[in-house]
From TrEMBL:
EC number: 2.3.1.191
InterPro entries associated with the record: Hexapep, LpxD, Trimer_LpxA-like_sf, UDP_GlcNAc_AcTrfase_non-rep
Class of this enzyme: transferase
Record's protein name: UDP-3-O-acylglucosamine N-acyltransferase
Transmembrane segments: none
Length: 343
């Protein structure tokens, strides 16, 4: 699988700014590891030394660059990281072969609605009664699809995914290995000294172009729907509790926890190991930095950090003050001693 230089320029809407020796490319690599057959990119100034020394066949560069490594083709693009992603997708699409049909070792209930000529169901997969599967969808090995599940078009469910009963996936949803969609919400009532389970009878809805990371769990609603909004990307090892609603195009990073019935607006970013308490609302375009804890409603279009979450500048001032405490305490003790000596 190869791309020519002309194909790369067309695909990235780039401009040739430095010529090199290679004319076709079939690999992808970092600047440091690339060889003449590879495409790479300069997306961060930290890697500028690697860029100047690279052996990559072609490098995607931003417009601010005016030095070019010898022997490499340099193509100027608006966003090197995004342009590199387009090449990755192009090469991956050439390598991935969609083979429609149901593997003999899969089990599909008789009343499942799908076109076997346009859907791929691989060995060990189980699709239970009343489910529907859209054209172009790929269900990989050992996936478990519960009763009455609805799956849209061009979805990819990787190995060992579980989608429990009656949940809904819209179009182009990607589920990475071993994630669970529609597990029971964590609901109990203390009755007569015992924790009594509260039935969770709602569903999960994943809207168009959602991607869910490996080993992430998204709980079904106690009633109604847990909703992951269009275009939202959820990383590995994330816990999303019952009745959570996220807006469109959110980024939810590894080991984050979203407690029951919290709501995220559109384009919210929640960084690694952050948490949002139950019934809290986070406004559009808010950013919660790593290990931030949202314990009350947060306005949109701001960046937050700390526990509890505060605007970044406010939290940084607090941390700076705390860092000065040892010195201030020492000065206080010295001043107290001098006053006592004087008295």
């Amino acid at each position: 699988m190869q791309l020519t230089l002309e194909e790369i320029i067309e695909l990235t809407s780039g401009k040739l700014v430095s010529e090199g020796s290679a004319s076709s490319f079939n690999g992808l690599a970092s600047l440091k590891e690339a060889c003449a057959a590879d495409v790479s990119f300069l997306g961060n100034e930290k890697y500028y030394a690697d860029y100047l020394a690279t052996n990559a066949g072609v490098v995607l560069v931003p417009s601010i660059v005016d030095e070019f490594p010898g022997g490499s083709v340099a193509i100027e693009v608006d966003n090197p990281s995004f342009a590199f992603g387009l090449i990755v997708k192009k090469l991956a699409s050439k390598q991935r072969v969609f083979k429609a049909g149901v593997h003999p070792a899969a089990w599909v209930a008789d009343d499942v609605v799908f076109n076997a000529d346009k859907v791929s169901i691989k060995a060990g997969a189980v699709v239970e009664s009343g489910s529907r599967i859209g054209d172009g969808t790929e269900i990989n090995s050992n996936v478990s699809i519960g009763e009455g599940v609805v799956i849209g078009e061009e979805c990819v469910l990787h190995s060992n995914v579980v989608v429990r009963e009656f949940c809904e996936l819209e179009d182009r949803v990607i589920l990475q290995p071993s994630c669970v969609i529609g597990s029971d919400g964590y609901g109990y009532e203390l009755v007569d000294g015992r924790h009594t389970k509260v039935d969770q009878v709602g569903i999960v809805v994943l809207q168009n172009d959602v991607e869910i990371g490996a080993n992430t769990a998204i709980d079904r609603a106690r009633f109604g729907r847990t909703i992951i909004g269009e275009g939202t990307k959820v990383d590995n090892l994330v816990q999303v509790a019952h009745n959570v609603v996220t807006g469109k195009h959110c980024l939810i990073v590894a080991q984050t926890g979203l407690a029951g019935s919290c709501e995220l607006g559109n384009y919210v970013t929640v960084a690694a190991q952050a948490g949002v308490a139950g019934h809290i609302k986070v406004g559009d375009q808010a950013v919660l930095l790593g290990r931030t804890g949202a314990a009350k409603n947060l306005a949109g279009a701001q960046m937050y950090m700390g526990m509890p979450a505060r605007p970044v500048k406010e939290e940084q001032k607090k941390l700076a003050s705390l860092a000065r405490l040892p010195k201030l305490l020492k000065e206080f003790k010295e001043l107290k001693k001098s006053l006592n000596d004087a008295g």
